[in-house]
Specification:
InterPro entries: Beta-lactam-related, Beta-lactam/transpept-like, Diverse_Enzym_Activities. This is Serine hydrolase. Keywords: Hydrolase. GO terms for molecular function: hydrolase activity. By secondary structure, the chain is an alpha+beta fold. The protein has 2 domains: about 1-360, DD-peptidase/beta-lactamase superfamily (Beta-lactamase, 3-Layer(aba) Sandwich); about 375-460, Lipocalin (Beta Barrel), CATH 2.40.128. It contains 12 helices and 21 strands. It has helices at about 1-20, 65-80, 100-105, 110, 130-135, 155-170, 175-185, 195-200, 240-250, 265-270, 335-350, 400-405, and strands at about 25-35, 35-45, 60, 190-195, 210, 220, 235-240, 275, 285-290, 295, 300-310, 315-320, 325-330, 375, 380-385, 395-400, 410-420, 420-425, 435-440, 450, 455-460. Strands 2-1-13-12-11-10-9-8 form an 8-stranded antiparallel β-sheet, sandwiched between helices. The chain has an 8-stranded antiparallel β-barrel with strand order 14-15-16-17-18-19-20-21. Helix 2 (about 65-80) runs parallel beside helix 6 (about 155-170). The longest helix has 20 residues, at about 1-20. It is globular and about 60 Å long. It starts with a helix and ends with a strand.
């Protein structure tokens, strides 16, 4: 196709310069229109070794894995083995959180669309054995409930690890073997790895982290997060072209490359149905389906997901109306600006979709900030919202847990008005000004949650 050829020529010419401009060590991209696919790569997979990034190189796809996990669950729905609205304990009796009522009430659907309501960033390492997810589930027994299941959205990695256990119980084999047997094989994937032992057979990217604000990205200290979080996105790696094979199955009503059904049309449609709305959070979607993030652009609806692991970031968008998909994988640097430059160009040219501009801070501080002030907490950070003597509002984020161990630094940054109860960072974080919505009410006129995709609950005035 002429448009795809033009995009290919543009990528070949500009990708090396763009990754250099944004300090991205290496990147790989694939674009599909119908059955036609192009892919390109530039840079290196590891700055310490200098190994060249190629289109067949494997990058971790991070939380894009959640769409794969959701697909495995929907295959079980097709087989009559899973009822989306059944309690999770129907399939995993040992599942429990701190709140007894929530333990009994949380459903498979709520895990899929991030409305289960319990603390979600739980990255407990339970080893590398085939029983690691089985061992992980009981570690959630003391995890607090943030809100009543089904009442709001809060991104939840732990919930997807539990879904991984649902899959294991019903299939009778480890999660990574389920990926191979029920998706890799029927899709004919040749460059996909469910764990590091598979990935080492290929050219595999290593993530890179900035240890200081203005420093160049350096190789990450470890390759991946724990295997116990594999179903949430800690392990799965592949080349961009293989991700687009998965995308084209979804765009073909569940039909695989050889014409055999991988998922039913009913399940394909169900995964794209809106399940939960999000507060306005910049580049995040407008709502969530069963696995898919949903973007309501003026031109059409786009589905997708992003992923972030230790120094690797991935971006995945599909436009059903135009039979278009794009996957961009990176291993460090200012990835948000690279995403805007490359994916923005691709979608505009082949799908007539214009990415909305990222939000920018206004000059004003809210007249009354008393609703926002206080301390909010999650398993990965404590966040204090304060006001100084000059009336400026500050967000001080103190990292803890696995994020602190991996070198994520504390941040203190000024917030200004954006819209309504959403404030925005005055200076960029990882290349973008980040919106933070203050939602709910604690009964005393204060926001109950600080929401940036995850709902961090107020713990102090």
């Amino acid at each position: 196709m002429a448009k795809l050829d033009e995009i290919g020529a543009w990528l070949q010419k500009h990708l090396p310069a763009l990754i250099k401009e944004h300090q991205v060590p290496g990147a790989a991209i694939a674009v599909s229109v119908g059955d036609e696919v192009i892919d390109y790569a530039a840079g290196v997979l590891n700055t310490a070794t200098g190994v060249e990034a190629t289109p067949d190189s494997l990058f971790q796809i991070g939380s894009i894995t959640k769409v794969w996990t959701a697909t495995l669950i929907m295959q079980l729905v097709d087989e009559g083995a899973v009822d989306l609205d059944a309690p999770v304990r129907t399939y995993v009796p040992e599942f429990r959180v701190a709140d007894a009522d929530a333990t009994e009430a949380i459903t498979v659907r709520q895990l899929l669309c991030h409305t289960s309501g319990f603390e979600g960033d739980i990255f407990t390492d339970t080893g590398v054995g085939d029983d690691c997810i089985e061992k992980y589930v009981p570690t959630l027994a003391a995890v607090p409930q943030l809100f009543t299941p089904g009442t709001m959205f809060s991104y939840n990695n732990a919930g997807y690890s539990v879904l991984g256990r649902v899959i294991e119980v019903l299939r009778g084999k480890p999660y990574d073997q389920c990926l191979r047997d029920h998706l890799f094989t029927p899709l004919g994937l040749t460059h996909a790895a469910a764990n590091p032992y598979d990935a080492i057979r290929y050219r595999a990217a290593l993530g890179h982290l900035q240890t200081k604000p203005d420093s160049a990205p350096e190789p990450a200290p470890v390759w991946s997060l724990a295997r116990s979080n594999a179903a949430a996105g800690s392990m799965l790696a592949m080349r961009p072209r293989d991700l687009l094979t998965f995308a084209r199955m979804h765009l073909r009503n569940g039909i695989g490359p050889d014409g055999s059904p991988v998922l039913s049309p009913a399940s394909i449609a169900a995964m794209r149905e809106r399940q939960a709305d999000l507060p306005y959070l910049g580049m995040m979607g407008d709502s969530w389906g069963l696995g898919w993030e949903i973007f309501d652009f003026p031109e059409t609806t786009v589905i997708g997901h992003d992923g972030g692991t230790i120094g690797q970031s991935s971006f995945f968008r599909a436009v059903p109306e135009h039979d278009v998909a794009v996957a961009l994988f990176t291993n460090g640097g200012d990835v948000m600006q690279l995403y805007l430059a490359i994916v923005g160009k691709v979608l505009a040219e082949v799908a007539n979709v214009t990415l909305p501009p990222l939000p920018t801070p206004g000059a004003a501080t809210p007249a009354d900030v008393s609703r926002y002030l206080g301390t909010y907490s999650s398993d990965v950070a404590d966040v204090e919202i304060s006001q100084d003597d000059e009336g400026r509002v500050w967000m001080h984020r103190r990292m803890k847990g696995v994020h602190a161990e991996l070198g994520h630094v504390d941040e203190k940054i000024e917030l200004t008005s954006l819209q309504g109860d959403t404030l925005i960072t005055k200076t960029p974080i990882h290349g973008i000004h980040m919106p933070h919505a203050f939602v709910g009410d604690d009964g005393q006129g204060h926001a109950l949650f600080l929401h940036s995709g995850r709902a961090d609950k107020r713990v102090g005035a």
